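Reposting from the mailing list since nobody answered there.

I have sequence plus structure tokens for a pair of proteins and want to know whether others read the tokens the same way I do. The first protein:
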Amino acid sequence: MEYINAFWVGGVICALAQILMEKTKMLPGRIMVLLVVSGAVLGAVGIYQPLIEYAGAGASVPLLGFGNTLWKGVKEAVQENGVLGIFMGGFQASAVGICAALVFGYLASLIFEPKMKS
């Protein structure tokens, strides 16, 4: 049942993002920023963590989950370091994921020979 919950929750999040792309004139970059900020706001309000506990990777993998991770990192860092934690927390919480994206993106570019669009 965990897989089914992850599948349908992740699918709904992706479908909502696709609807935003199709029905509005927002550019994809702005939609991505909206999703990250929405995840941070939902995490701050306390709505997103129960969704992650219910859906697992279906809620933590999309960009909403990244925003929630940033929020949790900032919250913990502020509790430990005060105001300086505002600047440190997001980096500490997301460093592993960002590093993995950079490393695997670089490896993929070595394997598949990327080309510039013309």
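The second protein, same order (residues first, tokens after):
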Amino acid sequence: MTRSPFEEEILTHIRPTPEEVEHLRTISDRIIAYLMEYHRRPSMVVGSVARGTFVRGDRDLDIFMLFPPDLSREDLAIEGIALGRSVVDHFGGTAVEKYAEHPYLKARIYDLDIDLVPCYHVASAREIKSAVDRTPFHTRYIIPRIVRYIDDALLMKQFTKAGGVYGSDHMTEGFSGYLCELLVIYYGGFNPLIRAAARWRPGLVIDPENHRTRSFDEPLVVVDPTDPNRNVAAALSLDQMCAFIELARAYLDDPTEAFFTIHRPASFTRKQVELTVAERGSALYTISFPTPPYVPDTIVPQLRKSAAAIADLLKRSGFAINRIDCHMGERQSVLLFELLNDRVSPVIRHIGPPVINGENAHRFIRKYIETPPLSGPFIEDGRYIVEVLRPYTTVGALLSSHDLIEAALGKHVRKSMAEHGWEVASGADCWSEDLSEFLAAFFERSSPAVRIMRMSGE
């Protein structure tokens, strides 16, 4: 398997050290032994640590505690959390309870971040009772097949991380570690994968076990080898798929270490925000409110939905949107809007029904006789027209109004805003230390390959 000298050099920096591997194995073996010896509970290490495909420094440990499938979901949650806390107490760690499909513990034991996850011990992936039950089957499938491709998987993960397309969370919408591994195995290495990806088109279907039982409508379909009804690439958005295609093409044109180099995100000062907004001649507004107490995979889609709904409200009110974005912080979440105008004329034309539409035309006339408009009703091109005053002539007034709550917001977003209120800021006042990287990424937005090529040219 031929690699370039610099790819071999990259591997010397991203392979986990023997000390790392031994440390992770020692801690995981001790936890698994404790669970069996003291609680008669079988468990297993899953994820990239189990498969030997973790990049140096990414030392998160996932331990799944296996429960009988006849246990109720409620009892699984109760017993799983109690068992996880017993592990944490025994090893002198700390933990917080998190919730995905059911509760689990995110623990800190010694110097490791460890997820202690209860799941059902089922015979096959087709018998799963919750999404996490599938993960052990992924580990069992990958381990014997990845042995000759471990270095390729490391290159693929580092490549996607440096390109900003790694992560299947709702904010990133990119490649999961499992997806990276499956693609490397399917194509027979990192470089064959990159050559193939440069020619990808949306709608591509990859079925490693040739057992697909249904159709999928995502841009890239990689049928789960352990479950014919699941697309491993379901989280990958069209934009992120295209970003990876672009990265692959650029890498083939000029393969350099820059494609594996992860840079610290840029950040903006308040002054930079002020100067950038002035240079663009646009209007910048933020809506901030307390972050609802749920995991990002629940809240981020609701933030996007809420931003889109408010953008529609702004458009209907005469304001032109350039771009929108959202940010979920630990304490505050933010919806960001860049507009091409933040003021509109007080007068607006409202088009009524055709004159020949008797019943509707009559109701329209009666309405505006009882509540006289600025002008009209009058007739243009066979329809009634009135000119009325807009309820809001500035973006700030609209975003501060109760009409915002009436938009099609995400459920938890609406609840947070209704209970705690929200703050509207504009221009440089949108800046805060917590948003410095978010605002820099918004204004300096570029595709991953373009960003890498610009950095390489500096």
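Reply #1 (J.P.):
I read it the same way you do. The longest helix spans residues 18-39.
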